[in-house]
Design brief:
Number of strands: 14
Shape: globular
Structural class: mainly beta
Largest sheet: 7 strands, antiparallel
Strand content: over 45%
Number of helices: 0
Length: 203
């Protein structure tokens, strides 16, 4: 008759670690301290925190602990420019010195108020050379998002571990387009592996 053996073991070396390199919940109606804004448009309106009248505006979002309603806190928001604007606007976080051999995960929430107005895609990008060049890690397509609904996103960027990186939320508007809001931006590093392992076989 066949005999079976089942072995189970658990890691006890205590090396598992997880920590946030970035936690931005947009606690206040203002540009966060760890953030820089770059507008490529010279017409003076539209982009992150800049409305089409050229004035500063923020947007409603969640509280940092996610309690309450989406109108109880604040969010980062990129506004459409004027009809003749050809706009690219970056909200840049970092730099972050990421640990080697760690898993890296970028999570955030995004929202469009009227996805049908979104004629241009927006991007989340990473730079490893202080913003000289950028690599796209996520394409935000407004028409793929239901209107006025916060959507959770998770992006695995472990291939950047061990490098110093910037992260850009890059808004694009060729003329009038839809506004883009983000909230609860987190960059997590962890070296957690599956601690519980098992082996079974027959002989």
């Amino acid at each position: 008759a066949d005999n079976a053996i089942n072995l189970e073991w658990q890691s006890i070396d205590g090396t598992n670690d997880s920590f946030d390199l970035l936690f931005e919940c947009f606690e206040f109606c203002g540009i966060p301290n760890n953030t820089s804004i770059e507008h490529s448009s010279n017409n003076g309106n539209g982009g992150w925190y800049r409305f089409n009248d050229g004035q500063y505006y923020c947007a409603w979002g969640y509280l940092c602990d996610l309690t309450g309603t989406p109108q109880d806190g604040f969010a980062g928001v990129a506004w459409s420019g004027s009809e003749n604007a050809n706009l690219q606007s970056r909200m840049i976080f970092g730099p972050f010195e990421t640990p080697s051999d760690y898993n890296l995960a970028l999570t955030f929430m995004e929202l469009y108020w009227d996805e049908s107005l979104g004629v241009d895609n927006n991007y989340v990008e990473v730079s490893i050379n202080q913003g000289v060049t950028w690599e796209t890690i996520y394409t935000s397509i407004p028409t793929d998002n239901p209107a006025e609904t916060w959507i959770n996103k998770l992006i695995d960027i472990s291939n950047y571990s061990g490098q110093t990186i910037l992260i850009s939320f890059t808004y694009n508007a060729n003329g009038l387009s839809e506004n883009w809001a983000v909230d609860q931006v987190v960059l997590n590093a962890n070296n957690i592996v599956d601690e519980n392992r098992s082996l079974s076989g027959l002989w």
